[in-house]
Amino acid sequence: ADTASESKSDDDASQERKSEDNQVRTIKLTASAQYMYNCAHEILNQIAPVLDRRSFPLDPPGKLQSVVIGGMTALLESYLIHMARQGKVGRATDQQSLAIIANAYFLCIDLLPRIVATMSAHTTRTPSELTSFGDKMKRLYVALQTDFCQRRAALWISDHWKWQPGD
Q1: Which long-range contacts (CB under 8 A, 24 or more apart) does 114-117 make?
Q2: Are the CB atoms for 125 and 62 separated by under 8 Å?
Q3: pLDDT tens, position by position, for the chain (167 residues)?
Q4: DSSP letter string over 97-156?
Q5: At CB < 8 A and 24+ separation, what contacts does 38-45 make?
């Protein structure tokens, strides 16, 4: 349901990012992924002053940081799980499935490193929980891509070559 409305608005959302060679590139996102980017950035902008140890020196070491990291992880994870379920139910079109795969990819290679960099700039430590969550996100992206390719290959073989299991 959600993916059907997303695929219609794929052309409307884009995000600029600097690549490793410092060139600005535009990445295409679905409306929901763009919304996720915007929410994550807004949350970080609002919470950054609170994360600064100079602002809240009485905070037990890392307690507030852990809560924020846990919340950010939960936000991203719930979005990705929802999108993965939408792609796996079998009702998603190829365009919608590819949009879901692209969302997972860009959240993993672009948004998460931005979150880590922003949080690292305002905290006393690098949020290693987010880095390990990035590994989990990469596995999800690979699983989505593999599942899509397997489904398409099976359809192509049965439709194009008219091969049936056991032939």
Answers
A1: 114/40, 114/41, 115/40, 115/44, 115/72
A2: yes
A3: 344 333 333 344 555 555 555 666 677 888 999 999 999 999 988 888 777 766 666 656 567 778 888 899 999 999 999 888 887 766 788 888 899 999 999 999 999 998 888 888 877 767 788 888 999 999 998 999 998 888 888 777 777 666 666 65
A4: HHHHHHHHHHIIIIIHHHHHHHHHHHSSS--HHHHHHHHHHHHHHHHHHHHHHHHHHHHH
A5: 39/75, 40/72, 40/75, 40/76, 40/111, 40/114, 40/115, 41/114, 43/71, 43/72, 43/75, 44/72, 44/115, 44/118, 44/119
* Cα–Cα dist 144/140, whole Å: 6
Phi, psi of 124 (to 5 degrees): -90, -5
Return the number of other C-beta atoms located less than 10 Å from residue 3's C-beta. 24
Q: What is the spatial distance between Cα 47 and Cα 127, in angstroms, rounded to a whole number?
A: 15
Tokens of 76: 């991203």
* DSSP letter for each residue of 7-49: HHTGGG-EEEEE-TTS-EEEEE--HHHHHHHHHHHHHHHHHHH
